Amino acid sequence: MRKKIMYGSILLCIVLWIIAIPNMDYFIEFMIKDTFIMIQYTLIPIIISSIVAVGIIYGLIKKKFVL
Known about the structure:
- Helix content is about 90%, strand content about 0%.
- The longest helix has about 30 residues, at about 35-65.
- By secondary structure, it is mainly α.
- The protein has one domain (about 1-65).
- α1 runs antiparallel to α2.
């Protein structure tokens, strides 16, 4: 069960990064026009994926130290 959650969250990170990175330039161009859209589509996925990635790394490190 835990492995499924871990792999799912890693996959989610990758998907969010794939979505966010190509749109980055496009949203930076229109940042002045509509900051909210830029934040909604680029920064939020990056922040979420970063938090998840940090959580996974922290979990793996903690597990290794415990073992």
